[in-house]
Amino acid sequence: IRCWSNIPFITMPLSRAHGKSFAHRSELKHAKRIVVKLGSAVVTRGDECGLALGRLASIVEQVSMLQNQGREMMIVTSGAVAFGKQRLRHEILLSQSVRQALHSGQNQLKDMAIPVLEARACAAAGQSGLMALYEAMFTQYSICAAQILVTNLDFHDEQKRRNLNGTLHELLRMNIVPIINTNDAVVPPPEPNSDLQGVNVISVKDNDSLAARLAVEMKTDLLIVLSDVEGLFDSPPGSDDAKLIDIFYPGDQQSVTFGTKSRVGMGGMEAKVKAALWALQGGTSVVIANGTHPKISGHVITDIVEGKKVGTFFSEVKPAGPTVEQQGEMARAGGRTLAALQPEQRAEIIYRLADLLIDQREEILLANKKDLEEAENKGRLALPLLKRLSLSTSKLNSLAIGLRQIAASSQDSVGRVIRRTRIAKDLNLEQVTVPIGVLLVIFESRPDCLPQVSALAIASGNGLLLKGGKEAAHSNQILHHLTQEALSVHGVKDTVQLVNTREEVEDLCRLDKLIDLIIPRGSSQLVRNIQKAAKGIPVMGHSEGICHVYVDTDASVEKVTRIIRDSKCEYPAACNALETLLIHRDLLRTPLFDQIIDMLRVEQVKIHAGPKFASYLTFSPSEVKSLRTEYGDLECCIEVVDSVQEAVEHIHKYGSSHTDVIITENEKTAEFFLQHVDSACVFWNASTRFSDGYRFGLGAEVGISTSRIHARGPVGIEGLLTTKWLLRGDNHVVSDFSEHGSMKYLHESLPLPQRNTN
C-alpha cells in the first residue's frame, strides 16, 4: 500500500485517473504529468568531461514545448559530476606553476597528468553550474525551472518524503519545471544489488531508480528514460542477432541478456529495466529510448508523447495477436515458401480465392454493409469515399474475373529466364525473375483492393502486409480470412498478413529491415505522407492524378464529348479521371466547344477557368486557384492552348505524369503528342479511364506508378518482380582470364527457353 502526501495542493485536472498505466503507445498523447530522465551519456560529451550543450538545448526545447501545451514536466538529470570534472580539470591546469608550464613544452603540456578526481567533489563543483545552464535555457521559452537535490533518506524518512512531495506539487501548480538530481556531493557509495527491495520500495541508487521512485510518488502518467542506446534489445546491442524490443512486458526479462553499462553513469540497462518495471507496477507508463542519436534526439521526447514507435515501450497488456514485427517475419518466411511452389500451385491458390469471393458473397456483403452503416452514422466519409467503400455482387464478380486472369497469366512469372550469356566455355550466366520480398500495401476505403493485391502478391511469390483503413474493418477482416483460407491449400497461410494492431502508418514505414517495398493506395495526401515517412524503403505509387485531355483542332465531333464525359463523369473520384481539359484556341466559340460545355453542364460538372481561358470571356466561371489541382469530384479546369506543343508544355509543367490524352484525327499531331508527353500513360482518342491494370489485361493492379525507376503505369505481376543472376561454372577462377591466363571471355548471347504462353 502506497502512502501519498496528506499536504493539500492544487493541480490542473488530469486527462485520466491515475492507477493504471497506458496499454498502447497511441494513448501516450493523453499523458498529463511526465518525468524525463536524462542519463549521464545523454547529458555529457563523448570525452566525459563537460556537457553536450547542443543536445541539452534540444531536450530543453522539447520539454518547453510540452510544458506550454499544458502538461506538467519534470526532469531527472545527470551531468553534475561531468560538469564539475570539467571545471576542476580547468582549475588544476591553471594552478600549475607558470615555470612548469613554460619548461614542459606545448606537447608535454597537453599530456600533463591530471590526478583522479573524486566524484563527490566534482558533483559539488558542477551542481550550481548545471542548474545555471538549465535556467538560462528554459528562460528562452519563458519557463521557470527549480532545482531539487535528493538522497535516499529523503524517501525513507516520512516527513522528508512529505515535504518533497508537497514541494514538487507546489512547483507544478505554479507552472515551474522541477529539475531533480541525486545530491552526489553527499550521497554514500552505492550498495551492490540494491536496485529493488521488496515490491513497494525501490532504493535510490542512481538516477534510474530516482526517476522511477519519483514517477510513482508523484502519480506520473509517463516516465521517459533517455540513454545512449535505442532501447531494450533481446541481446546485447551491437551483437549480430540483437533486435530492438518494441514492447516489453513484465516477465519478459528472463528472455533478455543484458550487456555492460553505458560509458558513464552508475546504472546499466538492467538497472533501467528494473526501475521501469517498478514504475510500471506503480501505474506509470515507461519508454526507454536513445537521447544521443543526432537524427532523432531533436524530437525524441515529442515523438514518444505523440505515440510514435520510438525506443522500448513497457506495457502490462499483451496484444491478442502477433506484433507487426512478427507478422513481417511470418510474411517473409511464407513468401519464400510460396516462391518455391510450382507455378500451377500458386495459380491454384488464386483460383480458389476467386471461387471463395463468389461462394461467400453474402457474408462479404453483410460485413461491407456494417462498414457502410458505421461510416454513414459517423458521417466521417465524403461521398466519393463511400462509393469506394461499397461492395456489390457485380464488383465481386468483376474481382473474381480479374483474379482468374491473374492466375492464368502467372504461370511463368517467377523464375523466368530473361537473359542467358555464355561467359566462357562451361561458364554460363542467367538472369531470372524473383519476388521483391515483403510488400506493405496501405489502402483507404477500398476493400476490393485486398483480394486484388493479395492475388498479385501470390502470383509473384511475395510476402504481403496489408494495412487497411478502419472504415473498412469488417470487410477487410472477412476478405483476409478468405485469402488465408485459399493460401492454406498449399500450407502458406501466413504469407498474407492483415495489420490490425494500433500501428501508425508512419511507424510501419520505418520497418526497413522487414519491408522491401511500400505501395500506398489512397488519397494524394496519404501517398505524400507515406513518401515523407518512409525511412530507407522505396515507395511505389503516385501522389496525385492530375490527368489532362487535349482537344486538338482536328478532333472528331463525335469522339470529343464521349471521351470527355467518360474521362470525367464515369468515376470522378478515380485517380485516372480527367482533371484539366485543354482546348485549342481555334475551337473557342465554335459549335464543338458549345457541345462540350453543354455536356459538362448536363452532367453537373463544376467548371473552373484557367487564367488564359478566363481572359477570353466576359463572364467566366470561377478562376482556378491552382492548375495543379486534383478535384476527385464532378469538377474540372478548362484552359486554352495555342498548339499541341503548348499543350505538351502545360502538361509537363502542371501535370503529375499519370495519364494524358489527345483527341485528334491528325495522325502526325497525335504521334507528336504520344512521343513527347512524358507521362506513365499517354493515349490517343481514348478515355483516361483506360489507365487501369484490369483494362490493360493485367488482371488487376497494386497501383499506378508515376516514378521512373522499376515499374511505371498500372503495376501488375511484372512490377512486383526483380531479378537475380545465376552463374554455373566448373572450377572457374578469375585468374584464368588474366593476360597470361588460359581462358578467354566469350560473352555470347544464348537463346532463351520457350515461354509457356497457354
UniProtKB/TrEMBL annotation:
* Keyword terms of this UniProt record: Amino-acid biosynthesis, ATP-binding, Kinase, Mitochondrion, Multifunctional enzyme, NADP, Nucleotide-binding, Oxidoreductase, Proline biosynthesis, Transferase
The listed locations are: Mitochondrion matrix
Q: Which InterPro entries match?
A: AceGlu_kinase-like_sf, Ald_DH/histidinol_DH, Ald_DH_C, Ald_DH_N, Aldehyde_DH_dom, Asp/Glu/Uridylate_kinase, G-glutamylP_reductase_CS, G5K_ProBA
Which biological pathway?
Amino-acid biosynthesis; L-proline biosynthesis; L-glutamate 5-semialdehyde from L-glutamate: step 1/2; Amino-acid biosynthesis; L-proline biosynthesis; L-glutamate 5-semialdehyde from L-glutamate: step 2/2
Entry's EC annotation: 1.2.1.41, 2.7.2.11
Please indicate if the UniProt record lists Amino-acid biosynthesis as a keyword: yes
Q: How does it assemble?
A: Can form homodimers/multimers.
Which reaction equations make up its catalytic activity? L-glutamate + ATP = L-glutamyl 5-phosphate + ADP; L-glutamate 5-semialdehyde + phosphate + NADP(+) = L-glutamyl 5-phosphate + NADPH + H(+)
PROSITE patterns associated with the record? GLUTAMATE_5_KINASE, PROA
What does the function comment of this entry state?
Bifunctional enzyme that converts glutamate to glutamate 5-semialdehyde, an intermediate in the biosynthesis of proline, ornithine and arginine.
One GO term in the molecular function aspect is: glutamate-5-semialdehyde dehydrogenase activity
Annotated organism of origin: Pedionomus torquatus
Q: Which Gene3D superfamilies does the UniProt entry name for this protein? A: Acetylglutamate kinase-like, Aldehyde Dehydrogenase, Chain A, domain 1, Aldehyde Dehydrogenase, Chain A, domain 2
From the Swiss-Prot or TrEMBL record, give the protein name. Delta-1-pyrroline-5-carboxylate synthase
One GO cellular-component annotation of the UniProt record comes to: mitochondrial matrix
Could you give a single Gene Ontology term from the biological process aspect? L-proline biosynthetic process
Which Pfam families does the annotation name? AA_kinase, Aldedh
The Aldehyde dehydrogenase domain is annotated at: 324-588
Q: Does the keyword Endoplasmic reticulum apply?
A: no
Family, as annotated: In the C-terminal section; belongs to the gamma-glutamyl phosphate reductase family.
Its lineage reads: Eukaryota, Metazoa, Chordata, Craniata, Vertebrata
Aspartate/glutamate/uridylate kinase domain segment(s): 32-290
